[in-house]
Amino acid sequence: MNQKNSLNLHSYFLDLDDPLELFKSWMSEAEKKEIRDPTASSLATANSAGQPNVRMVLLKGLSSEGFVFYTNLNSSKSRDLKENPKAAMCFHWKSFNRQIRILGNVTQVDDKEADLYFNSRPYESRINAWASDQSNPMNERSELLKKIEDFKNKYKNEKNVPRPLYWSGWRLKPSSIEFWLHRDNRNHERLRYNKTPKGWEKEILYP
């Protein structure tokens, strides 16, 4: 599928049939130009009542199967995803005026994949995963600090901190990926890939 000439897009969009390859190209550039963490993405979810919620997460894995982030399985985002396994992600790189929006269905990663990532995290981060009852209220911050110390005493060997069963990852399998490129006077360029039974199809959108 060669639509580069007919779509008449900027060369930044490249001529790729697979949006994940274009995503990797843009992410590679973001890693060089974005002054903040280029893997930071807003994640939008909605519960069974349709109430939306949005927060920032970090992209921790990417494959042909989708985009992976990790969290407490009892957090508000996880509760939403258990009730309504659909989500949206948005990467916005203000430093060089690009944005990527992703829609799709979400599934939990398997234990092997979650263990592998958890064991790669710094010791303090692994301890905090045990100590934090994420998204739930606490009376005062000293409660959390005490729990952190308690778990440090329990898991003194920094190389042997098991992953909590309530901590894992989610994978967003994309059904739509849109690439946005800033232009002056709101004359932005937008390219959207839509997943069909025959594969990915492209279309350009009005700004």
Descriptive terms for the model:
207 residues; 35% strand; alpha+beta; 6 helices; disordered N terminus; elongated; 29% helix; nine-stranded antiparallel β-sheet; Pnp Oxidase, Chain A
Percent of sequence in beta strands: 35-45%
Structural class: alpha+beta
Distance between the termini: 24 Å
Mean pLDDT: 94
Number of strands: 9
Measured as a percent range, the helix fraction is 25-40%
Number of separate domains: 1
* Shape descriptor: elongated
**Main CATH class:** Mainly Beta
- Which blocks of ≥5 consecutive residues have pLDDT under 50? 1-5
The CATH topology is given as Pnp Oxidase, Chain A
Q: Order of helices and strands, N to C? A: HHEEEEHEEHHHEEE
Radius of gyration: 20 Å
* Contiguous helical run count: 6
**Could you describe the largest sheet, including whether it forms a barrel?**
9 strands, antiparallel
Q: Can you tell me the CATH superfamily? A: Electron Transport, Fmn-binding Protein, Chain A
CATH-derived architecture: Roll
Written description of the protein model:
The chain has 207 residues and is α+β, with helices and mostly antiparallel strands. The chain has a single domain (4-119, 169-205), classed as Roll (Pnp Oxidase, Chain A), CATH 2.30.110. The chain contains six helices and nine strands; from the N terminus they run ααββββαββαααβββ. Strands 1, 2, 3, 4, 5, 6, 7, 8 and 9 form a nine-stranded antiparallel sheet that branches. It is elongated.
